[in-house]
Design goal:
Blueprint lengths: L5 H9 L3 E6 L36 H15 L4 E6 L9 H9 L9 E8 L6 H11 L4 E8 L3 H6 L6 H13 L3 E8 L5 H15 L3 E6 L2 E2 L3 H7 L8 H14 L5 E4 L9 E3 L6 H15 L20
Parallel strand pairs: 1-2, 2-3, 3-4, 4-5, 5-6, 6-8
Antiparallel strand pairs: 7-9
């Protein structure tokens, strides 16, 4: 293929099929509790882009056990990534983080072959990295950091309230300790445009994250973005536009970076817009076809050697 996908990399790395099990540890974010702001990111719902399982009374160990059973029914020869997904999982006191990590301890090695934590670049204290280093003595640990867009003005506008420099600095600190890192991006944020998609890919390439997750902007119920959409401030991407911008994005990534995700989805009952008829599995085929039409591939337009430009302004 003309871009690097996750499944072959997992099979080569772990020697078996590996599946994610999403876990909800009940964390929050500094742009929700008043430390940096209130209300959270404009696109984020009350589950923090996660399952909301803990709020419904399902403890972490039970969430993991249920996820393992679900995977075992699909594939008897499997490994599991214990993925702490909701909100910012290092934005807790150290005692709570240690308690959360201990919930997966009994399953480490097999079937849990890796632990991944999603968090923000501005909520990653050294003490948390110390705890994760201890965990990494048992299994690989991925740290997933949200960038979303390489534009400080837009990061303020969408109420993320961290900066591009904070993202780059957090990735650097993780790499100093030899953690694998995954950067997140959203294409189609209001005011970002095609140039924003390209710029965000350039920053992700320059950061050196080993993996990238990218998806189109989705308007969910009970979010600030829903109010913007109703007011005509948001125009969701069509599948055709998204694939074209995604090809630009992929061309500007590093040729070795692994695409963990190239689209997203939402439970139908939560999704306001867009309602694509194109299934997310088709996006991979459309991206491959678009790159073939252009005669390009992942990394074709990567220019890591150039100095980082100023990202405060569109």
């Amino acid at each position: 293929m003309r871009f690097n996908t996750l499944r072959p990399w997992l099979l080569e790395t772990f020697g078996q099929p590996v599946y994610r099990v999403a876990l909800d540890a009940g964390s929050t974010c500094p742009n929700r509790d008043g430390t940096r702001g209130r209300g959270g990111c404009v696109y984020c719902d009350v589950e923090g882009s996660g399952t909301g399982a803990l709020r419904r009374g399902l403890e972490i160990r039970s969430q993991l056990a249920e996820g393992i059973r679900r995977v075992a029914r699909r594939d008897p020869q499997f490994g599991v990534i214990a993925y702490f997904q909701s909100y910012s999982n290092t934005y807790v006191d150290l005692g709570r983080l240690e308690e959360v990590l201990e919930t997966v301890d009994g399953q480490l090695g097999q079937p849990v072959v890796c632990v991944a934590l999603a968090t923000r670049p501005d909520t990653l204290p050294d003490q948390a990295l110390d705890l994760l280093e201890r965990l990494r003595e048992k299994v690989p640990v991925w740290i997933e950091l949200g960038l979303e867009t390489a534009d400080d003005d837009l990061l303020r506008e969408i109420n993320r309230l961290h900066t591009v420099d904070e993202f780059l600095e957090a990735v650097h600190r993780c790499h100093e300790r030899d953690f694998l890192t995954v950067g997140h991006a959203i294409l189609g944020l209001p005011g970002d445009g095609r140039a924003g998609a390209r710029r965000t890919a350039e920053v992700l390439a320059r950061s050196g994250v080993s993996g990238v997750k990218v998806h189109h902007l989705m308007v969910l119920k009970r979010t600030q973005l829903e109010a913007w959409w109703k007011a005509g401030r948001v125009e969701p991407l069509t599948p055709e536009t998204y694939v074209s911008w995604l090809a630009d994005f992929v061309e500007r990534l590093g040729p070795e970076q692994i695409l963990h995700r190239i689209t997203g989805d939402s439970p139908p009952e939560k999704l306001v817009a867009p309602h694509w008829k194109t299934h997310k599995s088709e996006i991979r085929e459309l991206l491959e076809a678009e790159l073939a039409r252009r005669g390009t591939r992942q990394g074709s337009a990567c220019s890591r050697g150039e100095a980082l430009r100023s990202y405060s302004g569109r």
